[in-house]
DNA sequence: TTGAAAGCGCTAACAC
DNA sequence: GTGTTAGCGCTTTCAA
């Protein structure tokens, strides 16, 4: 009793202070802090009369409920963690925007982490997010750290994997049909009459990269084309890697007449290497990229590419997470979105090829 | 006393539960929670013996201090808010990476918000961040909402403005010497012999855009070139805007022979318009962009551009904030970083121009 | 419908 | 050097 009085006196003294808390609002509106809480959260009925008084007081005092206190008490926070493997890749950037859009509308905040493809950093981030008591995490797994993830899931944090398949069942995921996309891109080249088709692939272990490679191989087989291992270069999904890979291909005795590049950044590097050799696209070498990018239409010639629904990946992942937060018992879902081939001019057209072969004979 | 006992008993029951707290660790290592706290934060001396026991227990229990509780108690969080105006712009993406790099090393987490250049969203984000009790905020101001910022600063949250000058003194800021950069880019064109030089400018109100316009005008004056208002198009810093602006320029009776574009996205649009008209760069039109981008070297011809130290802007802003957090009384700093002209081939060279004029005469 | 009161997990002032 | 204890601001029983 007495303690309580003291507490309130203290609060009163602090009224002129900068930070307003629930006590100030309660005092100003002449109700208990419980009522203030109820009004602010809108989760219980409070008479219009009191509701009004509280709201007015809240505005007057510029009161914003303290989130730390709230999540400490509720043991759940209105915060979602996001771990991206490469923030400088426009693909992930669109994904983030998708996530942010949905989360913003639902009143969630977003903790952002960049793993830089480094499993150590990834783990640190995962730990931090857990300490931060986030409600859930959306991430691009760099590798499938099973035990650690299970730990997280058991501690009540929901996980959604994006871009790369998580390699486990107890998790929602949003990925893209990489195999089909790569198949379509390669088929596009085959249908235009190209036979010596090269591939600049990503890292051998990454799931996206493996699936794209499979799609490529399947398409080659499907179109009865020779699969020359020399024309498949494994690289690192980075610009410099794509540059070196393309150089390697061009230095071959029999370089490819067309090439598919397994992600956007490597495409940039490949393009650079092609230009440095003064090769004409598509006449001397055709190129199709995985990931459509803003600059694809600004290139000369414009770049034919497999478009991934990056923004949708983000929104879908966010929605999946929100749904799971509402109903944690829901069965896990693996959403696979479709890619789309954007035909532009970097692969030429059938007509050109036919004409060329006539001229050449 | 009795209460305490009950509490500890409760804790004991929960031991098998998923979430471990400071009590579990204290119990397992046979010390008080205060000692555990001291060991975890490393802020006070604890004997090696106990330190060890606590650390071992923490590992065993997979204990992670709860951040909400910590920041509630300390009334400061180890969290920094970041509000970016356009996450899909690679420039900001590099800035974020810079920020993240520094903050990660200092054990801070990063709350991310995307304002989409929308002042309303910006304000919501600012409110949320304040409720979240972040230690500080790094942001790109969409407009200078003076009273609101003052409010924030008064409530103890430190602000650092980036990219755009905040238009007020009571704030740290990191910007770029836009005027000088634009001057150099324009001078580069002038020195190569171009006379009819156009400008695709950003929004009339944005500080970056204004400063770049000024630099452009100064350079024109400096090189005794005619400033034709028809050659200055105000646009919106977006790709489609740049596209339309370039179209407008090209439809002029006397289109410019060279053009400077005031940001990266608009450059992309301008390039697209140029290609659609089948104009040769740089022979028929030279182009220099503001913001150097990964794709600049992959273009044919490669793009001459003003490089902004985006990553450094991020690291500098983060450091500024960290320093202020240590010493809130420090005087405010306005850091202005330099740009750098990256000369490539989209503006041709003097030799070419001379040869051309000889041929044409 | 509203209020009183008990903590959420942690830190820091104070004891010893 | 280590332990005890009082809250940080909030939500949520439980009573009234």
Write the CATH architecture name of the largest domain in chain A: 3-Layer(aba) Sandwich
Separate helix tally of chain A: 14
Radius of gyration of chain A: 27 Å
- What's the main sheet of chain A like? 6 strands, parallel
Number of E-type strands of chain A: 12
Strand order of the largest sheet of chain A: 2-1-3-4-5-11
Low-confidence stretches of chain A: 1-17
* Strand composition percent of chain A: 5-15%
CATH topology of the largest domain in chain A: Rossmann fold
At the first level of CATH, what is the class of the largest domain in chain A? Alpha Beta
The total domain count of chain A is 3
Pattern of helices and strands of chain A: HHHHHEHEHEHEEHEHEHEHEEHEEH
Specify the helix fraction band of chain A. Answer: 40-55%
Write the CATH homologous superfamily of the largest domain in chain A.
Response regulator
Largest interface: A-B, 55 and 56 residues
Q: Short summary of the structure?
A:
Chain A has helices at 2-13, 22-29, 33-41, 48-61, 67-74, 90-105, 119-131, 146-154, 178-191, 207-222, 239-251, 264-276, 310-326, 350-360, and strands at residues 79-84, 109-114, 136-139, 158-162, 172-176, 197-201, 232-234, 258-261, 286-290, 304-307, 334-337, 340-342. Chain A has 361 residues and is α/β, with parallel strands linked by helices. The first copy, chain A, folds into three domains: 2-73, Orthogonal Bundle (434 Repressor (Amino-terminal Domain)), CATH 1.10.260.40; 79-176 and 310-337, Response regulator (Rossmann fold); 178-308 and 342-360, Rossmann fold.
